[in-house]
Amino acid sequence: MTVATVDFISTDLARGRGGGGPAPTRIVVAYGFWIFLLSDFVLFSGLFAAYAVLSGNTAGGPTGSELFNLRNVFIETMCLLFSSYTCGLGALSAERRQPGRFLGFNVLTLVLGAAFLIIESTEFAAMVAKGAGPSRSAFLSGFFTLVGTHGVHVTGGLLFLVYMMAQVVAKGLRPHVLRRLLCFSLFWHALDIVWVGVFTLVYLMGAR
Amino acid sequence: MADVRLLHDRTPGVEEQEPTANYLSYTAGLVLAILLTITSFVVAQTNLLWPPGIPVGLMVLAFAQIGVHLVFFLHLGSGPDHTNNLLALAFGMLAVFLVIAGSIWIIANLNWNMMEMPR
Lengths: 208, 119
What we know:
The structure holds 2 protein chains of 2 kinds. Chain A has a domain at about 70-208: Four Helix Bundle (Hemerythrin (Met), subunit A), CATH 1.20.120. Helices cover about 80% and strands about 0% of the residues of chain A. Chain A has 7 helices and no strands. Mean pLDDT of chain A is about 90; it is low at about 1-10.
């Protein structure tokens, strides 16, 4: 009996499958935050569905191909992609306890994220000025709701990042600060995943 | 037996940092994502693909890029620490698929059965 038990423990050390005892806090925290992010994806799926259903109903107003400037969308995409990259390098620097490099990389993340928001809000303002605001047609209501919600998430992510950089400066790279940084990285990368859906469904398919 | 338990038991809060990634993996992810993005934009604006197949092509490219993001940026892997994350992702994708595909299906059907409205 004893032998069998020992055998069971030593051969089934894989965590996450019930063996080897409870998982470390870092894994549990990331799992909880991942569940939140998936619920956020479900929220976006509702907005994607609404946009997909309404995108043909332009009510005689401007269509996507008349409004969208794919050059700007490509620049926005690159801003988000490179900000994801610098965010990842920042997370790596934090893991290696290099606060200086962490701050350097994340200043870049901040600048790229802000550039994305500036391009997006300029585009929104130009559309509203042209009379293509959210109240013009069902297509534009769906467009502004979906893309605007993503923009609000990016704004929230930038505030999250400023808050995390302040924590690293004030408290240093302590374990609980590192866990919050892990959550921020997951959030920022998840926003980039949503953007892949936005530029494919809204801009590339809508501009045709 | 007691020794074995002491050796392998963990308590929540025990921090143990395994190197999950390095600069190379982030750079590989960035290069792949840029290539897929450029391909998407080129496919959408030219007729390199058979035109009626372009939306399907764009969807495939988007799914490929989401996969690249999940593996290289979010570090979703097949290790034991990721079992729960992957199961949650599978359920999340099911919910996303049901909401999007279900809405499009139901509304398209309603449109089809709609009476012609007097203008």
